[in-house]
């Protein structure tokens, strides 16, 4: 696995992948950040296209990513992540809506767990998933980053006051 650490307008991110496909996008300053394993190889500039698209997204110029992805997870997690990719820029879904879209309305907690295990944050937009009442819920990059991303996408009316930061 090749990785790089990049600095963006929204902070530092670690990107990793192999064979031209992105497998990891994590937030270096996030509460769940895991450093690259020793066997991974640093490849500065290895993810230029992903970084270019991230910067365009952060500038408000890109609404949909076009990258080759290879997230690693269980079959169920991968199904959830594919469903997350269907959530349009500027919109949100609840965990229940995702579970219903998967044909299993009782899998709300499992959807939440899969959402939390998403290895390619932002690009696979787990930040667009909110609580049943519209409140912000956990995010690997922290709720502050989740709030910023939703505001960037034009969602300033979310119920942020439930989780003051």
Helical amount:
25-40%
Record the strand order, biggest sheet.
Answer: 3-2-1-4
Calculate Rg over CA atoms.
15 Å
Helix-strand makeup class: alpha/beta
Proportion in β-strands:
15-25%
State the end-to-end CA separation.
35 Å
Task: Describe the fold and architecture.
The protein is an alpha/beta fold and about 160 residues long. About 30% of the residues lie in helices and about 15% in strands. β2 and β3 (about 20-25) form a beta hairpin. α2 (about 75-85) crosses α4 and α3 packs across α4.
Concise synopsis of the structure shown:
The protein has five helices and six strands, in the order E-E-E-E-H-H-E-H-H-E-H. With 165 residues, the protein is of the alpha/beta class. The chain has a four-stranded mixed β-sheet with strand order 3-2-1-4, covered by helices on one side.
Strand and helix map with partners:
Blueprint: E1 2-8, E2 11-18, E3 21-27, E4 41-42, H1 48-58, H2 75-84, E5 93-94, H3 95-101, H4 108-116, E6 129-130, H5 143-152
Parallel strand pairs: 1-4, 5-6
Antiparallel strand pairs: 1-2, 2-3
GO biological process, one term: methylation
Active site: 126 (nucleophile)
Catalytic activity: a 6-O-methyl-2'-deoxyguanosine in DNA + L-cysteinyl-[protein] = S-methyl-L-cysteinyl-[protein] + a 2'-deoxyguanosine in DNA; a 4-O-methyl-thymidine in DNA + L-cysteinyl-[protein] = a thymidine in DNA + S-methyl-L-cysteinyl-[protein]
């Amino acid at each position: 696995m090749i990785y790089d650490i990049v600095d963006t307008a929204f902070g530092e991110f670690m990107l990793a992948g192999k064979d031209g496909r992105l497998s990891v996008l994590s937030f270096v300053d996030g509460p769940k950040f895991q450093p690259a394993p020793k066997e991974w190889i640093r490849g500065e500039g290895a993810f230029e296209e992903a970084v270019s698209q991230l910067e365009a997204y952060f500038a408000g110029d890109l609404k949909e990513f076009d990258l080759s992805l290879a997230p690693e997870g269980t079959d169920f997690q991968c199904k959830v992540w594919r469903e997350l990719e269907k959530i349009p820029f500027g919109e949100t879904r609840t965990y229940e809506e995702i579970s219903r879209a998967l044909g299993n309305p009782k899998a709300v907690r499992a959807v939440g767990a899969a959402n939390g295990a998403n290895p390619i944050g932002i690009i696979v937009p787990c930040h667009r998933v909110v609580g049943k009442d519209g409140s912000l819920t956990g995010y690997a990059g922290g709720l502050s980053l989740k709030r910023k991303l939703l505001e960037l996408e034009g969602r300033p009316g979310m119920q942020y006051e439930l989780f003051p930061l």
